[in-house]
Amino acid sequence: MGGFQRACALSDLSEDVPLGVEIDGEPVCLALAAGQVYAIRDECSHADVMLSQGEIEDAKIECWLHGSQFDLTTGEPLGLPATEPVPVYPVKIDGDDVLVDVGES
Fold first, then answer.
1. Which of 29, 50, 69, 88 has its CA 20 to 30 A from that of 22?
2. Phi-psi region of 95 (alpha: psi -120 to 50; beta: other; left: phi over 0)
3. What is the pTM of this model?
4. Are 55 and 40 in contact (CB under 8 A)?
């Protein structure tokens, strides 16, 4: 399908609390950090676990299983054991709707 699709309401997001959703069959972790909304693939590149079950701090998300951290802006790993980046997706805010395009990463 592609293009921007509604992921959730902006009011569904709380600062530094990740939210896991599915868009076009893709697992997506939404994060509100320092007033900015980010969308990153909801799967750690090191272990097949959901990043949305981790913690957010300073625009980074930490995988709960082994402690790998990823930059919410770029998806780049910031600490071992992960060495591969996680795809990030473009986000647009339209009123109270959070729109994400999983067709690009």
1. 69
2. left
3. 0.94
4. no
